[in-house]
Amino acid sequence: MGIAAALLALSPAKAYTQGDSLYLSVDQLFEKGMEQNLQLAADRLREKMAEERRKTARTGRLPDIEIGLNEGFVGQPVIFERGLSDPTYPDSPDWSQNYAVNLTQPLYHGGRIKYAIRQADIEREIAVLQTATDRADIKLSLLRQYLNLFSLYKQHRVLSRNINESERRLKDIRQMKEEGLITNNDVLRSEMQLTNDRLSLLETENNIRLASQQLDILLGLEEDLLLCPDTALLGKAYTLESYADYIGQAYANDPAMLLRKKQTDLARNNIDAARAAQMPQLSLYAANTLARPVSRTLADMYNNAWNVGLSFSYPLSALYRNRHRVNEARRQAELYRNAEEQQKQQIRVTVRNAYLKHSEALARVDALKLSVKQAEENYRIMRNRYLNQLAILTDLLDADNLRLNAELQLTTARTQVVYTYYELLRAAGKLK
């Protein structure tokens, strides 16, 4: 199944395969692209890692439990009753055993655990926003290649039609040459024009195969599969909202903007965490120990002891050691706040650029529609004049090239409307 069959598959319908061609809508393009993209796969792994860190941080509220098992050889004790002379060697067991269970439950750690949990939660949200940012950029990149493929198919159609027209024209010119109305020079020039068109068609077919292969690889499809884009995409109406609306949407929805805000929240949390290092710690502890021999009498018997209590500590050195760490955290928060304001400035520039480009693309389509009509009429007039010996072949070929370029420019302009619309959605944070 070749390019011609793939062209037949271009219709606004549900996805289907025909031989080695596949009709692919924009939604399916995005769906397959999101599933197969390696960058997004890495982002999803980072999300899972952040989720595990979030769960780990919550375990800080749980008690620490330790089990100790010690067994060993007991050396011969030596007792000196009068200075260091006349040592005695009492009887003692040769083996010691110690089994202990210790439990420590944090009661108050100055907020360290709370801020650690909050940090893990914010880092999880940052990972999600980073995935959303990459997803929007990847969608835009896929759409650019998708629309390029559509332009190539349209170029193939125009060239094929132009070749058919050139073959009919060459037949008429040869007939006119046999009748002695024109010279052989016109025949040769027409044949050269037809050869150039056929070479352009071959180049376009190769470009279609290359563009399809690139998308096939990105979408996880067979590399020799010819993809057929959705022609209905160009027929949709793409309306513009106000510039202020897009700015407001970008501030509220743009993943990059939300990412900056979360980074600022994380920096503020780090300030609280640094302050918490200066606060006292209070914990509940409990322990039980089973040991032999009895440590005081060395009697070869087990001794079981348990205790419960409160542990309180206050890091006085943190009052002077931690001060600079708190100041550093404050500067970090100011730095992220500055980055947030820079992102707002960048959003205004990006949205304005996308807004004007989309408006310009819409205006270009309206202007080129008229140009195509004029080029068609100009070619019709020049063809009739040439057949009536009122114009030379150069004028006719120029009119034909003008018509061809006008149609290709219109196709490019229409695809640009689609791309700039999605680019505007990306700038406003609505392409996720």
TrEMBL record:
Coiled-coil stretches: 156-205, 326-385
InterPro entries, A to Z: OMP_efflux, TolC-like
Domain of life of the native organism: Bacteria
Keywords: Cell outer membrane, Coiled coil, Membrane, Transmembrane, Transmembrane beta strand, Transport
Alphabetical list of Pfam families matching this protein: OEP
Principal subcellular localization: membrane
Keyword check for Transport: yes
Statement: the UniProt record of this protein carries the keyword Cytoplasm: no
PANTHER family: OUTER MEMBRANE PROTEIN TOLC, TO APRF-PUTATIVE OUTER MEMBRANE EFFLUX PROTEIN OR SECRETED ALKALINE PHOSPHATASE-RELATED
Entry similarity comment: Belongs to the outer membrane factor (OMF) (TC 1.B.17) family.
Name used for this protein in its record: TolC family protein
Protein source organism: Bacteroides gallinaceum
Phylogenetic lineage: Bacteria, Pseudomonadati, Bacteroidota, Bacteroidia, Bacteroidales
